[in-house]
Structures are given as C-alpha cells and as structure tokens.
What does this fold into?
Amino acid sequence: MMRQYELVERIQRYKPQVNEALLNKAYVYAMQKHGDQKRASGDPYFSHPLEVAAILTEMHLDESTVAVGLLHDTIEDTSATRREIEEMFGEDIGRLVEGLTKLKKLDLVSKRAAQAENLRKLLLAIADDVRVLLVKLADRLHNMRTLDYVPPHKRARIAEETMDIYAPLAGRMGMQDMREELEDLAFRHINPEAYRTITDRLAELGEYNRETLGDITVTLKDRLAENGIEAEVYSRQKKPWSVFRKMESKALSFEQLSDVFGFRIIVDKVDDCYRALGVVHRKWNTVPGRFKDYISTPKQNDYRSIHTTIVGPSKQRVELQIRTREMHEVAEYGVAAHAIYKDKPAAEKANGQDAGGGISKDSNAYAWLRRTIESLSEGDNAEEFLEHTKLELFQDQVFCFTPKGRLIALPRGATPVDFAYAVHTDIGNSCVGAKINGRIMPLVTRLQNGDEVEVVRSNAQTPPAAWEHVVVTGKARAAIRRASRMAVRKQYAGLGHRILERAFERAGEAFSRDILKRGVKRLGHKEVDDVLAAVGRGEIPSDDVVRAVFPDYQGSRNASIPAGGAEGDGWFNLTNAEGMMFRIPGDAASPDAQGVAAREAINRAIPIRGAASDMPVRFSPEGAVPGDRIIGISTPGKGITVYPIQSPALAAYDDQPERWIDVRWDIEGLEKRRFAAQIVVTAINAPGSLAEIALIIGQLDANIHTLSMVRTAPDFTEMVFSLEVWDLKHLNGVIAGLREAEAVSTVERASG
Ligand code: MN
It folds into this structure.
C-alpha cells in the first residue's frame, strides 16, 4: 500500500507548493475511519480510497481534490459525518464528499428509470462542481480494475453501467485515457471472448509490425529534425474496444481493419503542427478525405489536433495525429487539464465564482453540460432523457453556421430541424424549410461540417409529430413531442367542447365550463379541460357527461340523424359499388357543376409565393390547404406541383434537390376561399353510415367534391372524400368531428 509521503511526492512533481498537512490529515483520517474494513478482494478497505487518490494524481489534480479522493467513502461507509469533515477539512471538501455519498447511493440500480434519475443527479452534481465527476470517475476506474473480486451477478451490471454512462461521459468531458481504459475494462466483462480474441490478435500484429513501426518513427523524427522542428514521436495501437466497435459498425473482419496503428507527433507551438504536417505530406502519399483540422475547428469536447492518414512504406494506412503539448494534455485529461492551466487551485477560489472545480466556462465540454442540464428541466420523461443523452454522448459532431456566422455544433446525422431547435426552441417550432448554403433543401437532409443553414420560418404553426423521426437531438425531439402533445390536446378539447354543447342542447340543458365543473370529479378527472379532451378523443361518451352533471338525464342517442324524405327535399341519393343506397343531405354534397366551377376557381389563381409567375402551379392529388406547410416540386415543361410537407410522395424527390422550391401561402388580404384536400374515412358498414358522415361534414361547413368507396372488409368501407375547406384548422376540425361519429372507425388525411 502506498504511504502518505509517496502521495505527497507524486503531487510535488507537478505542483511543488503542495499543502502537505492537508493530505496527511486526510490520509490518517480516512485510514482510521475505515479501520479494519475489508474489500471483496480481502485487501484493507483503505487501499481503495488510496488508489483513487493515486489516479487523481495521474490527472495532475490539486491536493484538495486528491484529499476528496481519500475521503470519498467515509460518510457512506464509516462513522464520519459531513459536519466532522467540514470542521477538519473545510466546507468545500465536506460538500464534495457529501455529493459523492449521494451519488453512491444511486449506483447500480437495475431499473432504467432509476438509472436515468441517477444520470440526472450525476450531471447536476458535476455542473455544481466538476471535481465530483473527476473523483467519481477515478472511483469507478479503480472499482473496474478490481471487478474480478465482485460476485459475478453484480459484475455485468457494473460493467454495463460503465460502458453506457461513465465511459462516454469521460469522453464527452475530453478525458480520452479514462474513457479508453473504462471501455476496455467494461468490454472484458461484457464480452470476454471477443475481448480475448482481439487482445491476442493485437499482440500478434504488434509483434509482427514492430520493425516497420520503429522505422516509421525514426524516419518521422529525422525528417522533422532536418526541418528544424522539435518533436516527440511515438506509435500507438488501437484499444480492443475501439477495434471491436469498428468491426461491428462497419462489418469488417480484423484483417480488413486498416488503421490499427497510429502515430502521434507532439510539438511545442501551433505553428509547428502545420509545418510538421507539410513535412509528412511531402514524404508520403496521403489518403484522400482523411485530413481533419481540429485545431481550427475543435471538437465539442475541446479536443484539438490535426489528423491525416498516409500510405506507409509497406502500403499500409497509418494515421497521424499532430498536436502541441498543451493540446495533448487536454486530449488526455480533458476537463481535468483545464484545472491544470488555471493559476490557482480551484479550492482557493470563492465559491460560485467559476463554473466549479476549475472547469472553464468557455470550454465546449462545459457548454454541453449546461445544455444537457437545461434539457433536464424540459424533458418530462426520465427514460427519454437517458436515451437522448446516451445518444448524444456517443455521436460525433458536425459544425454548422447561422447566416450571421454563429457556430452551432450538432451530433452527426442532425438535420436542419435539429439545427433550428439548437438555435432556439421557437425557431424550431416555426421552422417550415431550410436553405443550406443558399439552396432550399429537404428538411431530412443530413447536415455536413461547415454548412451554412438558414431556417425558413412561418408563424402560427406547430411542428408535425412525424418530425420526431427527422431529428437526432434530444432537445428537438422533446420539443416536438411537447408541441404536438399540446396541439393534439387542444384540438381534442376544442372538439369536446363542441360535442358537449350539442349534447347539452339535446338534453335541453344549458352548457358552460362552470356547469361542467360539477361533473368533473364524478367522471374521474381533475380539470374541465381533461374532460373536454377525453370527450374529444371519444373516451367518454357525451351522454355520460350530461348524466354526470344532471343525474336524471336519460340519454338521446340516434335522435340527431334525420329521417329520409322524398327526392327534391334537399337530399341526394348515392349508390355505392355494392349497390347499397345512401341518402345524404344536399348541403353537404356539391352537385357536379358547382364542384367543377369551384375546382377551376381553385386552380386558376393559386395563391402561392415563391413560384416564378410564368410557371403553371397545381396541387398534388392529396391537396393542400392554407396552414399546411408546403413544398413545390418543379417538373421541367410542366410547372410546379405543390405538396403538403408531410406528403410521402416527396420522398421520391429526395435525391433531386434542384427540383425543390421554397413556396409559401400568399393569401393575406385575399377573399376567403375554399381549398381541396382528400381524407380517407374507414366507416362501419351499416345503413345510415354515409348519411351520418355526410351530415357531419355538412354541419362542419365543408363541401364534398368527390367521393369514392371501397369495401375493405365485411364490416368496413373505406371512403375517400375530396373536401373543400377553408384552411388546415377547418380541415382538422372536420377530421376530428368525423372521428367522433359512431359510424366512423378511422379518419386520416390522404397521403399522396
Ligand atoms: Mn469508492
């Protein structure tokens, strides 16, 4: 076991003015408190906090953080209290040890919801003081190194939690060494066979290539020296987990892996990085498309380096990373390195004056942490949050710009919708299109590094729920879900209100929100709006609501469908393909002549902005109505076809961005008029069904232009209506109204 003077010596190597007294006091206190406690391995328990402290010295952390490492298990496992620790070591250390104690209680819960809660608490604790994370990671690293002594049933869970949360978090905070070691230790327990196989192969390969690697190292050193560049050069081998991940994700065999070996060139100044790059590129051929300058555009976790891949002497690909010593330390130690470059140890700073524990507020890692914590308060489901955070932890970044040049970092695979939400939630919610590098592009386009993205916006919109599948960031997904939940709820509540108005009227009773309040509890709800939405969704029959308010009411179903009459009484007879006859009220069905006239009027002057004036414009068969977000597709010689943005037909044009045209409704100040839209209604096959449907459509002020019917099953008929409606709100009202009808099973907007 390490003695206290050894610990002091380790710190003195990077911090000569070490507070020896503090360390000695913490060492003795922790040793006495843990007393004769033993670890699973049989070692004295104190060996664990001591090893954790040693790991913290490897990260070059100050003595108060190392002291927290020594004390981190005392409150949880011994008679020590926060008060006692504060009295002996100060408030700062007491707070940190207490924070770690709280986190420990959350460890290794198997339920996913509880895991998510754990991650939330961890992130909040880190934001408070990043030293909590550094000690927690050191603690986890030592526990992983000694995992063999833990009972097998616990091992898998610890390893998986490490792989899922702690390793990516270390990576996200820029601590690559920590990340790699945690991943490999976890990999060894999660998939022992794969781990052993890859480790053996890597060892063989390293042996086989030893000479070549030595040759390249010597050549690199000589060339750089000839050009007056002082540099440290060494080769490194990919870690087993990263080899395995690459084999899996790219479906490659071990032999097909091309970049198992890499070289690092460490220089003094940023200038030297670019000069070294010149030397390398003059000496060897490079592999196209593999050059990356993370110095001018750092990664989100503050990683900076130049990456390039050359073709080596025996035709193998060799990756080179070129960086300064400072960049190297940031790459190895991440947020911990920011602490190193601070003048004063963080503990001496006034509490709350900086971001905590020396993490720089300017660092990208910190910005990410803040954003993630913000989304904690937005997301209302802990499991969704875990899913998103995990997703974001694993993904690489793309960097895009607003037209004003603001840098927006997004996970790889992000779309303009993600971009819009990253800029601001309001911008995401009102996004209807995007220009990428000046050209209108589909919203499903994956953004590339350096893209300039201009979001095309329209007010009075809610994002379609389908966008949830278009986005990759948690922020966008949560906002879309929230917006569509709210929109749907509002829509149903509005519909419920109208349904209840009519139901109360039938019962001969007055209706108002106040009157409805009387029945809310009896119906098992808390708020009037809950009841309205439930009625709108069809969960509560309207008669039940009337009865809840007026218990004597008997019910009145079927009274609202009028009896038939002779022809000429304002009703039309329709016969469907099977010879069944329906009667529908005349004000709901437009006679053909009227319909054609209306249709022509619609086609004559389509109020669309964005289309060149001499181009003929028409609507796609499913129609589009004001309020729909629309996209124009141009067909040479034929003009522009306008589609609602959710139309599946648009997918056919994904690979022809030049045909996409940014169009918008231009109806401001124009006289109110109707637009065509198709809906598909599946109705129960019973006499009177069509009549009921047509009646509702008429009552809701829509015209039926055409109707076709197909019997899809013995009990169901699919009806495709071409309706003429005022706008999207009107159409949604009609759809919602039809969904309430007893004869109706489903109603959807037609898609293409
Ligand atoms: Mn511990």
Observations:
- Residues 467 and 480 are 7 Å apart (CA to CA).
